[in-house]
Amino acid sequence: MGVPAIDHARLMRASGERIEAVAREGTARQQIVARRLIEDPAAWRLWEREHDQLMRKVAAAQRGGQSAALKSTAFALIQRKALFEYLSEHRLRGEARRRAIAMFYGARAYTDAMIAEHGNFVRSACSHLCSNHIGTVVMLDGAFQEPMARYEELFREYFRTFCDVSLHERDETESLRALLPYLKHQLTELRTAILAMPRTLPDLFYEARIRRPTGDTVRMPRPR
Q1: What is the spatial distance between Cα 94 and Cα 125, in angstroms, rounded to a whole number?
Q2: How far apart are CA 135 and CA 139, in angstroms?
Q3: Nearest Cα to Cα of residue 121 among 87, 155, 144
Q4: Residue 190's pLDDT band (boundaries 50, 70, 90)?
Q5: Per the domain annotation, does 216 fall within a domain?
Q6: Is the pLDDT of residue 112 over 50?
Q7: Sign of the torsion formed by the C-alpha atoms of 118, 27, 20 and 69
Q8: How many CB atoms lie under 10 A from the CB of residue 220?
Q9: 2: in domain
């Protein structure tokens, strides 16, 4: 028996509720990202507009295709947040960070590019949290758990390797350069496999844990 089609209003409602839940009870990193969005009315409105367009594409898909549309959305969001994650995880500073930003932003002013990239990360990370939640809890598709987590891990490895190769001297990265085609092939194969996966029931214990009341649980105000 298939999962009933999910309309746009429900997708947006589930997304807003997810951001509020993560801001209260998510991991430390998730809370920071969600609260930055919630506490900045301008950022919230921009996220809402962008996320609205993403969810309209999912809602417009035929019932059997909504899961595939949401998976494609999740893939894109993983890519969109990768640069800021790379900068943060590698703690790039000074000239190294400027060179990394210039690879993706060209001649745009460095400070403006960094502000834009941080905002892009916050919105993309929040939409990614929503997409995984909707796929797991609303669509009841286990592909949004372990398989999608594996794809994200592999994409980070590919993106890290790509940036390292691009930012360092050729003789320092020859072995990494040879690895890039292999990683890209793995990504393509895994993406194809995830899109083709039949729906399997997810493990919802994690969802139950993050919804468990805590001493400081309060409803976060949503900016308008």
Answers
A1: 25
A2: 5
A3: 87
A4: very high
A5: no
A6: yes
A7: positive
A8: 15
A9: no
Task: Find all residues with CB under 8 Å of 92, minimum gap 6, and list them.
Answer: 86, 100
Domain residue limits at 59: 8-202
How many distinct structural domains can be found in the chain? 1
The torsion angles phi and psi of 26, rounded to 5 degrees, stand at: -80, -175
Sorted by sequence, the CB contacts under 8 Å of residue 175 that are 6+ apart come out as none
Alpha-carbon Rg of the chain, whole angstroms? Answer: 19
d(CA 145, CA 206): 10
- Sign of the CA dihedral with 111 first, then 114, 118, and 124 last: positive
Question: What is the mean pLDDT of the segment spanning 74-83?
Answer: 97
Q: Kindly report the pTM of this predicted structure.
A: 0.86
On whether residue 30 sits in a domain, the answer given is yes
Specify if 37 maps to a domain: yes
Q: Give Cα 201 to chain centroid, integer Å.
A: 22
Q: What is the pLDDT of residue 91?
A: 81
Give one word for 21, left, alpha or beta, with left for phi > 0 and alpha for psi -120 to 50: alpha
Q: What six digits make up the tokens of 136?
A: 């797991």
Longest dimension (CA), the chain: 56
Residue 157, H or E segment = helix 146-167
